[in-house]
Amino acid sequence: MDDLLIRGGLVVDGTGAPPREADVSVHDGRVVAIEPRSARRAHRVIDARGHVVAPGFIDIHTHSDFTLPLNPRAESKVRQGVTLEVVGNCGFSVAPALPGRATVLREYLASSAPWLPFEETTFADYVAAFPRTADNVILQVGHNTLRLMTAGMEPRALTTDELAAMERLLAEALGAGAWGLSSGLFTAPGCWAEPAEIHALARVLRRHGAAYSSHIRDEADRVGDAVREAIAVAEATGVHVQIAHLKLSGLDNWGGAPRLLDEIAAARRRGLPVDCDAYPYDTASNPLRNLFPRWVMDGGIPAMLERLGRQDVRARLRADIARDGLTNFGRISSWDAVRVAVAPNVPDEEGRTFGEIAQRRGVDPFDAVCDFVIADRGATRILVTSMSEADVRAITATPWVTVGSDANSLATAGVTSQGKPHPRSYGTHARLLGPFVRDLKLLTLTAAVHKTTGAAAAALGLADRGILREGAWADVAVFDPDRITDRATYDDPHRYAVGVSTVVVNGAVVLDGGDHTGALPGRILRRP
Ligand SMILES: [Zn+2]
């Protein structure tokens, strides 16, 4: 007798093969049979007629390490059909936090993890204390975190000793269960690393059979150079490279998606292990301070806050931004394109743009931005509408571009329901399968499911997930292709997606008839 029989659905198996009607049997955590009109018996039968039965979705780029300890039910993701999240991205991880450095790390990550308690911890202790969760998790260790632990916020190359210390911390984390290293070369202190530093760390990764993912050095005016820098890591070291949330920010770069995709496709044709991911929105989210030139963060957050109060510093910042555009985002239409998402110390302003805030206060928008960073002690997270919809669609329509929300698991109640975060936390995968596939027909349902299941598993090197076949882990999403859609908006982000009826993780039902069962069958996945 099997545990579960998902009967009568249209199986889209994640390989890109045509859909077929079949029953899916699950026993002991695994798929044990996929056959039409199965005669197998099971303790529980789920009627999937009229629904698609797919592998559970892989959210290949998230920051849910900042919220899973607060919301282990991973509700905003599970309700989209997500069964695996890759966390520790963009160079940010909450471990290791060496003795005496936990406060610096908490301060540094306040704009990403405002509600998370921070403690001194090794990576091994962090893994051991990680909560049981509804979905599976792949952990990465962050390069920015490692640099904070070795050289702090010093804007310089590492000494030989510091690099050796960083390599040792990386090896420790990999030994303790980190899947790989993520970098965030777009911001301090990672931005102060030369390619040689990354290549040295990538050689450690290669020795462990581990992977590298990167929020690249620039996503605006120098995005092409930044993509080439990431590809060069694969070329020089043979390590798998995941280019995070591929995009072209800034008005001057709009329309560049086809060329950028060509460049990555060419590297893949040359046999280089390079993948990328994207989320289907034209708006990014970032700490507000990252719009400033990088020098403003020299020495750390308290030094930055002191600097921003000075008129001479503001004059230099204005001049830099007038000349170069916003760091990471290039030229934007106006400060109305920047909106406060989460401001833990100034929550009343959440949801307002800096155009509105400046007008209400009767000040210049740039002064409003600087004043805001100071008032919120550097912890503000913002939304920036910086991409063109045409580029977003071109990237999303590309079958080999995997899907990463770049966002935390949240819930509509409890501590993670605060603020006006990016709706992608609640909507990414449902938006792909609803508006982008069903309504806009940018790609077929089969291709879209493959992007966020089989293609993602291949990018990660996962052999037994991301595809529905006998023997694979039973991570399954059942959804109504006519109904699935995102409902979260920028004004009203805390709204669950609809249309997903059943989600199974490691053989256990976590979403049943659209309701969360409270089950926490997720595991931390380790490299084979
Ligand atoms: Zn990122």
Give the helix/strand class.
alpha/beta
Strand content: 15-25%
Mean pLDDT: 97
Give the overall form: globular
Number of helices: 16
Bound small molecules, deduplicated = zinc ion
Helical content band: 25-40%
Low-confidence stretches: none
User: How many runs of DSSP E, i.e. beta strands?
Assistant: 21
Radius of gyration: 22 Å
For the largest beta-sheet, the strand count, sense and barrel status come to: 9 strands, mixed
Q: Could you characterize the architecture of this molecule?
A:
With 528 residues, the protein is an alpha/beta fold. Helix content is 31%, strand content 19%. The strands form four sheets. Strands 1, 2, 3, 4, 5, 18, 19, 20 and 21 form a nine-stranded mixed sheet that branches. A six-stranded parallel sheet has the order 9-10-11-12-13-17, with helices on both faces. β11 (211-215), α7 and β12 form a beta-alpha-beta unit. α4 (143-151) crosses α5 and α6 (195-208) packs across α7 (223-237). The longest helix has 17 residues, at 160-176. The structure holds zinc ion. Zinc ion (ZN) is lined by residues 89-90, 215, 244-245, 406.
